[in-house]
Amino acid sequence: MSEEDQVKEEQQNGSDELFERFIIKIDKGQEPLRIDKYLMRRIEGATRNKIQQAINAGMVTVNKSTVKQNYKIKGLDEIIVYSDMSPEETEVLPEKIDLDIFYEDDDVIVINKAAGMVVHPGSGNYTGTLLNGIAWYLQQKDPSITDSTLPRYGLVHRIDKNTSGLLLMAKNSKAMTNLAKQFYDHSVKRKYIALAWGDLKNEKGTIVAHVGRNLRFRKLFEAYPEGDHGKEAITHYKVLERFNYVTLVECVLETGRTHQIRVHMKYIGHPLFNDDTYGGDKIVKGTVFAKYRQFVDNCFAICPRQALHAKTLGFIHPTTKKEMFFDTELPNDMKNVIEKWRSYSSVQGSQ
């Protein structure tokens, strides 16, 4: 694969780790060349001034270390260029939106995102997103900020529209770069709670299969166990409670690919409950009786989205270097549907 193809592949393959913008692996025979000049040639639309600013801000690494503008690249170097705005993002217009700010200081914001909220503006979703709400929130804290002078801030990862839970934002470029590296190094600790169809065979396990875009339907993602497409993806799971036809599981992400848990659970035959993208919005396991179908429909109504919640988040603070850890309660829709399945399973077991 050529360098150009590698760059394109990194841009096209979705990832919840938003700011791993470019990864460039230098050919073995590359002659020494200043990194700012090299990147200006490699990245379409980039100016030397912008590249130098990114290098000075620590947003460019070579072999996982920051470098100076005059660093000369050599064969087999790996360059990573981070960005403080996601590739999909358009102009962010401040909007008054209710947000659950879980924690905030001068460098980071931790948000408990509600299900149904899109994280960032993009095709078909230019308003009503979490970033629109954050822009408004920052303006209220500092009235001197205008639409054109909003401070640089960025998401260092994302969660799906219909997934609830903890989301981390950086409030400045230095924090963004530091946190983005932590995600890239897979040192950020994340646990998700999910309700999956079926009775999992093992109490715990690890799912290893590349995740990449479906080759026919570009909005969908697929598991590729042979690793011939997509990016490496690793999910560890543990059974928390069994309800005969569905199972409550804890998922720990080692990597953060787009739709990773949803795709991996489908891959092992246990799609998430009510996941309308990956086959969980119909009866996958259970009986053929009308009474059971009605019960499941009632459960779908209680939790009208994939039953997935980003429950915990742990990282090293970019400035204090202290370990930060946050834990949330399950939202009511998941609490209620879990309790309904628990009661149903108990009744079935007593018959």
What would your notes on this structure say?
- α2 (35-42) crosses α3 (48-56).
- This protein is of the alpha+beta class and 351 residues long.
- The protein has helices spanning 3-12, 35-42, 48-56, 130-141, 173-184, 260-267, 290-302, 332-350; strands spanning 20-25, 33-34, 60-62, 65-66, 72-73, 78-82, 101-104, 108-113, 154-155, 164-170, 189-197, 204-208, 210-213, 221-224, 234-242, 246-253, 308-316, 323-327.
- Strands 7, 8, 9, 10, 11, 12, 15, 16, 17 and 18 form a ten-stranded mixed β-sheet that branches. Strands 1-6-3-4 form a four-stranded antiparallel β-sheet.
- The protein has three domains: 20-82, RNA-binding S4 domain (Structural Genomics Hypothetical 15.5 Kd Protein In mrcA-pckA Intergenic Region, Chain A, Roll), CATH 3.10.290.10; 101-184, Pseudouridine synthase (2-Layer Sandwich), CATH 3.30.2350.10; 189-350, 2-Layer Sandwich (Pseudouridine synthase), CATH 3.30.2350.10.
- Helices cover 26% and strands 26% of the residues.
- The chain is globular and about 70 Å long.
